[in-house]
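Subject: Protein record for review, amino acid sequence with backbone structure tokens
Category: Structural biology, sequence-to-fold work with a learned token vocabulary.
Format: Residues in single-letter code; tokens as whole numbers, each standing for a residue.
Body of memo: The sequence and its backbone structure tokens, given next.
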Amino acid sequence: MPTYHDPLQDADEASEALRGLAHASRVFDDPADTYAVLGDLLSGVRSLRQVLDQVGSAHLVHRGRAHDDDGDHTIGTSDALAAADELHHAGTLLDGVEEGVNAAMTHSGRIAWHAPAQELDREARFAEAPRRWLSVVFLQGDEAGEVLDLIDRDGPDAAIEHLRNWDYGDETTDAALENGYVYDEPPTGQLDRAVTDGDYTLTYNPFMGHVNLLRSHPAAISDPDLDETDVVPARKAISGVGPLDSRTPRTAGTPASARTQQASAVMDRDWFAGPARPPGSTGRGLSL
């Protein structure tokens, strides 16, 4: 985070941020993102122009303290003036850079990027298929606390990447269908936060201390025989109406009590700890 008062620390963080951007910008999955990046770069160029002027001015203001390694004030003053002149010249060159980036951003903003044909076909297939959401893993208590700490530290994308280790593909899908952890949309309460990354949606609540990772499931394509009566509407899952599985009686309750009952039933079954693995296979556990 910038300090706005410590030039050494802020310069170090700016350098690291630019290194990170140089690495991250090697590939753009969505070319439309280039417009936003250009906007931030334009702002950065303008700030860099100001920094060069201010660093140059510092050389002029403090030239009375300038000496060379042998203590010669005349040589030190000459170098301070030369440094200020070069910095002023560099700032002038940045004016052209700013104009170029600004012009590029204007052209980029006029582009309507279309998805590749194969991606459009995939989106069309998903649009035709009713999507269902399967619970991959539900955590609460200390285990959820560890993931919530990961979210605070590295963001929800890191938590999604971590919790994907609990997704065993067809095994997870079959277990969710068998136990009734299928929803018409990701169930979220009033204070829940939801983040989607591809086929995964992470819902979490730092106040109630639970985390849930769900995966989208194109029922009409992958499971044409899915019984629609087994699908729990998200609003019922939130309010506590609708069983966790076909053997759980339908009971209404308050949102808080319903969520507690659901979490308790999940922990008793221990299904969310990961589906049963064949003998000799190695499962993945929660570890940070």
Q: What stands out?
A: The CA atoms of residues 70 and 76 lie 10 Å apart.
